[in-house]
Write a structure and sequence with these properties.
Two copies of one chain form a homodimer.
Chain A (H helix, E strand, L loop, with lengths): L3 H13 L5 E5 L5 E4 L2 E2 L6 H7 L7 E5 L5 E4 L5 H7 L5 H7 L4 E3 L3 H11 L4 E3 L5 H11 L12 H12 L3 H24 L6 H14 L3 E2 L4 E3 L19 E6 L1 E2 L8 E6 L6 H20 L6 H18 L7 H7 L26 H4 L28 E4 L2 E3 L2 H9 L9 H4 L7 E3 L2 E5 L4 E3 L8 H10 L1
Parallel strand pairs in A: 1-7, 5-6
Antiparallel strand pairs in A: 1-4, 2-3, 4-5, 8-11, 9-10, 10-12, 13-16, 14-15, 16-17
The structure holds manganese (II) ion (2 copies).
The site of one manganese (II) ion has 5 residues of chain A, from loops.
C-alpha cells in the first residue's frame, strides 16, 4: 500500500467534485474456478484499490458526502480462517493503513444502504462488471440485472475517471516499475526463443517472471507465431525458422499497476526481407505516433497519423494504392490495422475500461464514430493532458478470413491491391508497443529501453 | 478431447439412471479480473467437460430424457471474433467431436427451458457455483439467488456423482499423467530451493512447469516456509537455513484432470532432529493410511487410522498423552491435525466439491459429524469402490493461535502436554500427500515415485 495520507487525500478530492448522498464502492470477491473454494488468484477492483488500497476479498466501502465519514464493510477472520489462511493484520489495522476510522460487519451494508434509499438520498455506485457484485446491486436496489448499468452514477463515473486519468507522482513510480519489469521479461523471452520450442514453453517463462516479481501478469499473455490474431491465447504451436514471434505481455506490480509491451522478433537470427520491410513500416508508424504525444493533442489524431504512415508504407510496397488521406478516411487501411493505436493505462491495462469508454477515451464533445471497422476499436480519442499514461501500439496484420470477406464484397478495391495481397496471406502480423506518460510539454516513455529496431533485435537473436 | 463415443456413452449411461424431463448443464463463462474483457484463464465446468468435452466459454447443453436428443446451445464466431481470436473449429464441428448432432443459438435456451417449465416437466439442473450461472438459473426459473441450490436436482446430483466417482480407463491415463507431471515439477522444486530465495521465486518455477506442460495449475500452489497455514497463498518469505519448505501443488492436464501432491523438505541439506522426528510420524501415518486403501473400507476409518498413528507418534515425543483411542475419539489430535486425511480427486482437485460433500464424500447412511473440530473438515468418509481416485495427506501443524485458544479454555489438557508444546510453537508444519486409485483388490499410487523418505529427500538436498 501507499502511505495512508494518499488514500485520505484521494477520497477528499473525490468528495469535492460530487454533491450530496453516499458513494458506494464494492470490492471484488473471490472468483471460483471449478468450485467455490478453488478460486483464481484474487484481483481487487482497481477503483477500490485506488481509494482504499486494501487487497482482500469481499469488502465494500462507503463515503458519506454529507458527513465526514468513510466506512469499510467487512468481517474479521475467525479462528477457522486463521487455521486455514494464517494470521494477518486485522481488518481494523488494514483500514487504519488506509486512514479509514470505521469498520462495520459486511452484513450491515445492506441495511446501511437501504436507510439512504428510504430517505430518498442519492446512493452513487459504479457499473459492476463481476456477476457477484451485479447480484448485490440488483438485490439492494431492486433492479433487474439489465437495469443495473443504466442506474450507475454518471457523476461518480466522471469524477473517478477525471481523477484516475491523471497519474500522481507515486503512481508514475509504479508505472515506471511495471514497464521496466515488463521490459526485462521481454528481453528474457527474446533471448530464449529457439526454433522447435513450443509457444507454451516461452509463455512459461513469462509466468515465471511475473510470479518472481511479486506481482502478476497484467493480462493473459499473447505469445504467438500467429501475430495477426489480436488476442491469441492459444500456445500450442511449435516455433519454426522463418516465422516471427509476437509477444504482447506485461506485468502488474504488487500494488496493481500495469505494464503493456509488445515486440515482434524472428524465430531465426534475422527477419526475412519481407518481414523487415513491414517491420520498418510499423516502426515508422510507432515513431510518428509517439513523437506527436503532447498535452492538447487529440489521441484520435495520433491514431490517424499512425494509420497514414502505415498506409504510405503499404503503398510503397504495393499492397495499397490511391491517395493515403482518402484511403484512411474511408477506412481501407483497416484491412491491415483492424484496431486502435493505443489506450489509457494505469491500475488496469485498459485503464478504467469497466467505467465506460465514452467517459475514459472520449468526451461529451468527441463521441466515438462507432460504425467504421477499425476506428470502432479505438479506445482513446480525446485530447491528452499531463499525467495521462497510455500505449502506442501500431501493427500490420494479415488476416486471411478478412481478405476473403472484403475481396468477395469488392470492398475498397481502389485502395487495396488484392492480387498482390494474396501473396502475403500467410505473413501473420507485427506489432510494436510501448507505454508513455504525457508530461507538461510532450511525453516520455515509461520504464527502460527494450530492443526496438531491426538491428537491435537481430543483434540479440544472432548472439543467442 | 477424448474420442467422441466416450461422450456419447457417458451421456447414455447418465440417461439410464434418471427418469423423465430434461437435464440442463451450464458451461462456464469467462471470469473477469478487473473489467469484463480482461479475464482469468478460462476453466470449463468439470461436469460439462465430462459429458460434452468442449472447452469454450458461454455454452450450455440439454439432454432430453424422453426423446433421444442432446442439444448444444452456443454461438458461432462472427468475423469480428475471428479477427480478435483467430479461426477455430466451428461450434458445429466441436459438437460433432462430442457426438452432439444439434446446435442452437445461445439465446434460444431460455425459451427452450421455459417450454418445459410451462408443460410442468422436470428440468434437472446442478447447483451453480459461479455467479453468472446463478443469475441465469435465478431468472429462468423465477427463483431468488438463495433458493437456487435448494431447487437443484438431487437425482441428477446423485447420478453424476455415481458416474464421475468411478474413473474409467481413459481417465486413469489422464490422472496418472497429471500425477507424473506434478511429481516432475515437485522434483524440480526440491532441487531448486536455496537459502535466501523468496517463496515466490519457487512458485515461479511451479507456474513455469504448469504452463510448459500445456495445462494449468489444478489449484493455487501452497509453497511456504509456514506449512502450518493450510491454505497459504502468500509467497513473500525468504527461505532460511533451519526452516522447511512445504510444497502442495499439482498440475491439471490439458483435458482437465488434476494432480495433487505435497512434499515437505528442509531449506538446508538436512532436517533438524526435531523436524526429522515429526517427519517420521507423518510418514508413518501416510503409510498406515495408504496401506489400508481397498474396496469396502470406509475412508473415515482410513482417516481415523492416520489420526491414531499421528497421536501415537506425538505421544512418543511427549506432545500428547493418555490413551490414543480416547484422544482421537475426543478429537484432541486436531490440535496438530486440523483437517481431513484426504479427498476424492478427478476433473476437480477436490472432485465434485460443487455438487455437495454429502453426496460425494458421504452417503444417506453415513452422514458427516459436523461439530467436531478436525473431523468436520474430512471431505470423504464413505466406503471405497474400485475406480475411486483420492488423496492421502496426513500432516502435523503447530498453530500458535490454536494453542493459545485451546490452552486458555483448558481444552483436552488430559491429552495435550501444553507445557512441552510451548517449545514447539514455531515448528510450523509438515504434510505428505500422494494420489491413489482404488483397484479391484487394494490400491495403487498414481504417477511416478517422488522422493518420500527422510533419506531420499536429504540425498537430493545434499547433492544440490
Ligand atoms: Mn496494449
Ligand atoms: Mn489434497
Amino acid at each position: 500500500m501507499f502511505e495512508k495520507h494518499i488514500y485520505a487525500n484521494r477520497r477528499a478530492q473525490l468528495k469535492k467534485s460530487l454533491g450530496s448522498g453516499i458513494l458506494l464502492f464494492l470490492g471484488n470477491e473471490e472468483s471460483p474456478m471449478n468450485y467455490k473454494d478453488n478460486a483464481y488468484h484474487f484481483r481487487q477492483d482497481s477503483t477500490f484499490l485506488y481509494y482504499f488500497g486494501i487487497k482482500e476479498p469481499a469488502l465494500a466501502a462507503v463515503i458519506d458526502l454529507d458527513g465526514d465519514e468513510t466506512i469499510l464493510f467487512g468481517d474479521e477472520m475467525s479462528i477457522d480462517d486463521i487455521v486455514w489462511m494464517g494470521r494477518q493484520k486485522t481488518l481494523t489495522e488494514k483500514a487504519s493503513d488506509a486512514a479509514i476510522e470505521r469498520v462495520l460487519p459486511a452484513k450491515e451494508l445492506h441495511q446501511y444502504i437501504s436507510s439512504y434509499i428510504t430517505k430518498k438520498q442519492k446512493v452513487h455506485y459504479l457499473p459492476p462488471y463481476r456477476a457477484e457484485n451485479k447480484t448485490k446491486i440488483s438485490s439492494w436496489f431492486g433492479l433487474s440485472v439489465s437495469e443495473i448499468s443504466n442506474r450507475a452514477s454518471i457523476d461518480l463515473i466522471k469524477a473517478v475517471v477525471a481523477q484516475r486519468s491523471v497519474k500522481s507522482a507515486e503512481e508514475i513510480v509504479q508505472l515506471d516499475l511495471a514497464a521496466s519489469l515488463s521490459a526485462d521479461m521481454h528481453q528474457v523471452v527474446m533471448q530464449a526463443a529457439r526454433p522447435g520450442m513450443y509457444e507454451r514453453e516461452i509463455v512459461a517463462k513469462i509466468h515465471q517472471a511475473a510470479m518472481a516479481s511479486g506481482g502478476q501478469l497484467a493480462y493473459p499473455a499473447i505469445l504467438t507465431v500467429h501475430g495477426q490474431i489480436l488476442h491469441n491465447h492459444y500456445y500450442g504451436n511449435q516455433l519454426q525458422e522463418g516465422q516471427m514471434v509476437l509477444n504482447d505481455s506485461g506485468l502488474e506490480t504488487e500494488l496493481g499497476y500495469a505494464g503493456d509491451l509488445t515486440r515482434t522478433f524472428p524465430v531465426g537470427r534475422q527477419f526475412t526481407p519481407v518481414q523487415k520491410d513491414i517491420y520498418e513500416i510499423v516502426l515508422q508508424a510507432y515513431t510518428d505516433a509517439k513523437d506527436l504525444l503532447a498535452p492538447g493533442i487529440r489521441y484520435l489524431d495520433v491514431h490517424l497519423t499512425a494509420c497514414r504512415t502505415l498506409t504510405q508504407g503499404l503503398k510503397d510496397i504495393g499492397l495499397m494504392r490511391g491517395t493515403v488521406e482518402d484511403a484512411v478516411n474511408a477506412g481501407a487501411h483497416a484491412m491491415f490495422f483492424q484496431c486502435g493505436t493505443g489506450h489509457m493505462m494505469g491500475l488496469d491495462v485498459h485503464d478504467m475500461e469497466d467505467l465506460g469508454e465514452q467517459y475514459v477515451g472520449y468526451t461529451d464533445q468527441l463521441i466515438k464514430n462507432t460504425t467504421q471497422f477499425g476506428l470502432k476499436s479505438l479506445r482513446l480519442g480525446k485530447e491528452l493532458q499531463p499525467g495521462y499514461v497510455l500505449t502506442v501500439e501500431p501493427g500490420i496484420y494479415i488476416i486471411p478470413e478478412l481478405i476473403d470477406q472484403w475481396k468477395a464484397d469488392n470492398r475498397f478495391k481502389e485502395y487495396i491491391n488484392y492480387e498482390r495481397l494474396e501473396q502475403f496471406r500467410e505473413f501473420t502480423g507485427i506489432r510494436i508497443e510501448d507505454d508513455f506518460l504525457i508530461t507538461e510539454n510532450n511525453s516520455r516513455m515509461l520504464g527502460k529501453h527494450l530492443s526496438l529496431t531491426v538491428s537491435e533485435i537481430e543483434t540479440i537473436r544472432s548472439s543467442v
